[in-house]
Structures are given as C-alpha cells and as structure tokens.
C-alpha cells in the first residue's frame, strides 16, 4: 500500500484551484481599490489595479499549516491500515505453514477441507485489502475536498475584496504558466490569511 505522504505530494493546486475567476465589485471603497499586499519573492507590491495575480503553489503547499496536519492524518490512517493488513497476512501465513507441516499425516478429507478453508480465507484477505485501499483513497478524496473548499473560498473572497478578476497558480516546471512578474505574486498574503484563519479554527 502506498504511503500517504507520497500520494499527497502529487496533489497540485493546479488541480485544486486551476483558476479562480471573480467578478470585480464595482462599489468597493477607495481604500480597497488601492490596498497593497506583500509579495513572496520581491520587495514590490501587487495592487488592486492588477486584475490578474498568481499564487506559488509550491510555497503554499509547503507552508500552509492545514496541509501539514492533513498529511499527518492521512499518513497515520495509511500506516494503521498497513499494520492491520500485515497482521492479518502474517496470521494467514502461519495457518498455511501449519497446514503444510501437518498435511502429510492428515486424512484426505481433512486435507481437502483445510485447503478449501484456507482458499476462502485467502480470498477474504484479498477482498479486505482491496476494501482497505479503497477506504484510504476515500479518506484522501475527502481531505482534498476540504482543502479545496478552504483555499477556494478564501481566495474568492480575497480576490473580491482586492478587486482581482483572476487568480492563477504557479508551479515550478508547470508549462501552463511560464512567467509571472513578482509584483503579481500574492502568495505571502494568501498564506498568512489562510494560516491565521486555520489557527483560529483550531482554537
């Protein structure tokens, strides 16, 4: 069974967010229209005059506290499922070994009955393993859905407040976005807002 950490690292905000398009509020105050944010990689600032901005998803996924906690939960569940499967598998192997040790002295009908029983147990173990794997995948999907909602809802409200019409995501090596000016990078502000909100939720 795969470790949860390796599975989760494949998750990208390109899938989670893609692009969040938000209609600009025409009645926003002058303060909101000129509000500035702190970029992640530059001393310059992105303002509401920019209609399109972006988030560095590598930075966000590595520093968002909720993602760290989520990964820990998935890893714990995955390890528990793996331990359970190993325990059941080892118990089955012991039964097989015991049968192989004694089959030479067993009556034909007893051997046949034991082999049938072991075959059924093997099938049950395989089915249990498949169900356990499906449960782990369901847990991943549920956690990812929660992550999507948290980030998407926050970014949509943030964009509305700041007057941005589109929020893109950037990932190193992702050809969908080859370049973005540092003044349009709102990662630091988004990350701070998400972590502040999550810290309040945990309390």
Automatic annotation (TrEMBL):
Pfam families linked to this entry: OmpH
Keyword Nucleus: no
Family assignment from sequence similarity: Belongs to the Skp family.
SMART domains documented for this protein: OmpH
Chain ranges passing through the membrane: none
Keyword Glycoprotein: no
Record-given protein name: Outer membrane protein
Signal peptide: 1-23
GO molecular function per UniProt: unfolded protein binding
């Amino acid at each position: 069974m795969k470790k949860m950490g390796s599975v989760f690292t494949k998750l990208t905000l390109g899938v989670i967010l893609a692009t969040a398009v938000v209609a600009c509020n025409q009645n926003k105050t002058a303060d909101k229209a000129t509000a500035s944010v702190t970029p992640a990689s530059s001393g310059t600032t992105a303002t509401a005059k920019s209609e399109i901005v972006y988030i560095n998803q590598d930075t966000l996924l590595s520093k968002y506290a909720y993602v760290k906690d989520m990964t820990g939960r998935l890893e714990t569940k995955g390890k528990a499922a793996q331990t359970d499967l190993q325990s059941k598998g080892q118990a089955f192997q012991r039964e097989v070994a015991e049968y192989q040790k004694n089959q030479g002295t067993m009556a034909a009908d007893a051997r046949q009955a034991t082999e049938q029983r072991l075959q059924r147990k093997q099938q049950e173990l395989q089915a249990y393993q498949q169900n356990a794997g499906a449960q782990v995948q369901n847990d991943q999907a549920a956690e990812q859905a929660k992550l999507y909602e948290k980030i998407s809802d926050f970014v949509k409200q943030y964009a509305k407040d700041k007057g941005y019409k589109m929020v893109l995501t950037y990932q190193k090596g992702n050809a969908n976005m080859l370049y973005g000016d540092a003044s349009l990078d709102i990662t630091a502000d988004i990350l701070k807002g998400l972590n502040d909100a999550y810290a309040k939720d945990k309390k």
